[in-house]
Amino acid sequence: METSTTDALLDQRGLSKLRWRCRRGLLENDLFIDSFFARHGSGLTVRQAEALGVLMDLSDNDLLDLLLGRKPPQGELARDDDVTHVLGMLRAARQPV
Questions:
Q1: How many domains does the chain have?
Q2: Are the C-beta atoms of residues 89 and 36 closer than 8 Å to each other?
Q3: 48 domain-assigned
Q4: CATH label of the domain that carries residue 51
């Protein structure tokens, strides 16, 4: 059985580019993102990286509202299983192990 390209692990170069893209203006967002990469960085798939990229297209305040659970994902975000999965990973990364 072949692994699809999107299910393949993100390579080191891709991970480095993704980390750079995820830099945010709000410290609170950066704390979530740093914890996410510390917990999941070595095992991220291309598909998860793409979903994280969708979340990074949001404004800092909208992203923080999602991360804190103040607002649920809406519209396309709510219908995208990969985005909602990565959002859950981001939220869980801030929880103690």
A1: 1
A2: yes
A3: yes
A4: 1.10.150.250
Return all residues near 85 (Cβ < 8 A) that are at least 6 apart.
48, 51
Going residue by residue through the chain (97 aa), what tens digit of pLDDT does each one get? 445 778 899 999 999 999 999 999 999 999 999 999 999 999 999 999 999 999 999 999 999 999 999 999 999 999 999 999 999 999 998 776 5
- Cβ atoms of 44 and 15 closer than 8 Å: yes
User: 31-69 in b/e burial notation, b at 16+ Cβ within 10 A?
Assistant: ebbebbbebbeeebbbbbbbbbeebeebeeeebbebbee
Residue range of the domain that includes 82: 10-93
> What are the percentages of helix, strand and coil residues in the chain, rounded to 5?
70, 0, 30
Write the CA distances from 75 to 25, 31, 72, integer angstroms: 24, 26, 10
